[in-house]
From TrEMBL:
The keyword Transmembrane helix applies. The lineage of its organism: Bacteria, Bacillati, Actinomycetota, Actinomycetes, Kitasatosporales. Keywords: Membrane, Transmembrane, Transmembrane helix. This is DUF2273 domain-containing protein. The chain crosses the membrane at residues 6-39. It comes from the Bacteria. It comes from Streptomyces himalayensis subsp. aureolus.
């Protein structure tokens, strides 16, 4: 499944949540989708926990 199709499905889910559940449901679905996306990236090995918990003084070169 390509990224355009995944974006379409995510947009439709957010649209349905916003229409039927209101703005609060829209925000909840968007937040849970973001958490699921990050968890999926961790599971695939594309992200490492150190990328989120690095201090300000540390910079990647």
């Amino acid at each position: 499944m390509n990224m355009a199709m995944i974006g379409l499905i995510a947009g439709m889910a957010l649209g349905f949540a916003g229409y039927f559940g209101g703005f609060g449901a829209f925000l909840l679905v968007a937040a849970l989708g973001a958490v699921g996306f990050v968890a999926g990236r961790f599971a695939e090995g594309d992200l490492e926990p150190g990328e989120f918990f690095r201090t300000r003084g540390e910079r990647r070169r």
